[in-house]
TrEMBL record:
This is Citrate synthase. PANTHER family: CITRATE SYNTHASE. Belongs to the citrate synthase family. The gene is gltA. GO terms for biological process: tricarboxylic acid cycle. It catalyses: oxaloacetate + acetyl-CoA + H2O = citrate + CoA + H(+). InterPro entries: Citrate_synth-like_lrg_a-sub, Citrate_synth-like_sm_a-sub, Citrate_synthase, Citrate_synthase_bac-typ, Citrate_synthase_sf. Pfam families: Citrate_synt. It comes from Urbifossiella limnaea. It comes from the Bacteria. One of its GO terms (molecular function) is citrate synthase activity. The keyword Acyltransferase applies.
Length: 382
């Protein structure tokens, strides 16, 4: 009898950790952060409160939230040499790469060398949550030759992000839309980037390495990078009338063609976050106007339902988020960095959880290579 363990490609259904940070039922599209439905948080809460909830485990008291908010506001500014670094990066480079590089450098300017000091771990946690919007906006502006703006301590997290990006204060509706999007993207059980964060954390690497590794994982088009791809896809389609001919042609050319923003390992119904993003979008469009891309996305969802619905493939959170960001005037390649600005809360929550009773991740492989191969000296090879 074979003793070979069962191999599950992509670790499908294999538990990689025990976690109390969030809960997901993919058949019912139910997502909870520390037991609270995400839809409720998106409507009632703010990103700062949700970050505390995820990392600390419970809703903050009024005093805790006030202190947390104060501490975040005072860690937004980055060292002037980090701004110089951002200015030196290639202007045509991707903002996710700039974020990746600058988060590593952030860890050099504000070190947390070992992870055994809870006070230093907490300081790094605050720094990462607070400073990532500063880094993203610094690169977004510097590459266009615009002045890098100092964070404003009189604005909350979402409003300050929008201000640092655009130089304008958001309207209350825009702030709410952005904040709700950050809340919706803050955490999602054992997704690829969170798993990456936990694996990295399990080596006792410092939190900047943990977040840097997770940023790299999030960047891929099968994960967070899909929100940008969706917008390219909608631009390629170009019109509501072209949805059917476009998809028919793609599928004819490649039966395995993947529609970006569709499908999920866990959800077999429409991602509840996508529905909330649409509700939020309608608020955003009340101030601007319903963009053509949104009409195309709606038509694409409708046409895809007939084709992919029977297989349980529906829109995920990335399907509509980009349309919202675009309507706020945010450049397409900044969409995935916004995801990272939100998800850092979840990554850090998992990092703190991983450190309690930590054991290094070291799974097994099923070896498929050769054995006892004779080494042939180079001179004897053709
Ligand atoms: C925040 C997030 O990370 S949400 C996910 C964002 N990613 C995307 O939107 C990219 C497009 N989607 C995908 O590539 C996938 O659905 C993933 C990566 C999200 C999930 O991948 P997996 O769970 O490994 O599913 P897998 O890729 O094996 O697909 C299973 C089947 O559904 C099909 N399928 C999955 N997604 C799609 C899609 N977007 N369009 C068309 N068909 C799809 C596959 O072709 C495959 O079909 P088959 O059984 O006939 O071979
Ligand atoms: O859970 C996943 O695999 C991907 C996802 O939706 C997320 O990270 O938000």
């Amino acid at each position: 009898m074979s003793t070979e363990p069962e191999y599950r490609p992509g670790l499908e259904d294999v538990p990689a950790a025990k976690s109390a940070v969030s809960f997901l039922d993919g058949k019912k599209a139910r997502l909870e952060y520390r037991g609270i439905p995400v839809e409720v948080l998106a409507k009632e809460s703010c990103f700062e409160e949700v970050a505390w909830l995820l990392i600390k485990g419970d809703l903050p008291t009024q005093k805790q939230l006030a202190e947390f908010d104060h501490d975040l506001r005072h860690r937004r500014a980055i060292h002037y040499r980090l701004k110089d670094l951002v200015k030196c990066l290639p202007a045509d480079g991707h903002p996710m790469d700039a974020l990746h590089a600058t988060v590593a450098a952030l860890g050099m300017f504000y070190p947390c060398k070992t992870v055994s000091d809870p006070a230093k771990n907490w300081d790094a946690t605050l720094r990462l949550v607070a400073a990532m919007p500063t880094v993203v906006t610094a690169f977004a502006r510097a590459r266009r030759g615009e002045e890098i703006l100092e964070p404003r301590a009189d604005l909350d997290h979402s409003a300050n992000f929008y201000y640092m990006l655009t130089g304008k204060e958001p309207t209350p509706a825009t702030r709410k839309v952005l904040d709700a999007c950050l809340i919706l993207h803050a955490e999602h059980t054992m997704n690829a980037s969170t798993f990456t964060a936990r694996v990295t954390g399990s080596t006792l690497a410092n939190p900047y390495h943990v977040v840097g590794a997770a940023i790299g994982s999030l960047a891929g088009p099968l994960h967070g990078g899909a929100n940008e791809e969706v917008l390219h896809q909608l631009a390629e389609i170009g019109s509501v009338e072209n949805v059917k001919p476009w998809l028919d042609a793609k599928r004819a050319a490649d039966p395995k063609f993947k529609v970006m923003g569709l499908g999920h390992r866990v959800y077999k119904v429409k991602d509840g976050r996508a529905t909330v993003v649409q509700e939020v979008a309608e608020q955003a469009f009340a101030e601007t106007s319903r963009p053509k891309t949104y009409e195309i996305a709606l038509e694409l969802e409708k046409y895809c339902e007939g084709i992919y619905g029977p297989k349980g493939i529906y829109p995920n959170v990335d399907f509509y988020s980009g349309v919202v960001y675009q309507s706020l005037g945010i450049p397409v390649d900044v969409f995935t960095p916004i995801f990272a600005i939100a998800r850092v809360a979840g990554w850090l929550a998992h990092w703190h959880e991983q450190l309690v009773g930590n054991r290094i991740f070291r799974p097994e492989q099923i070896s498929t290579g050769k054995h006892d191969v004779k080494y042939v000296p180079l001179a004897e090879r053709p």
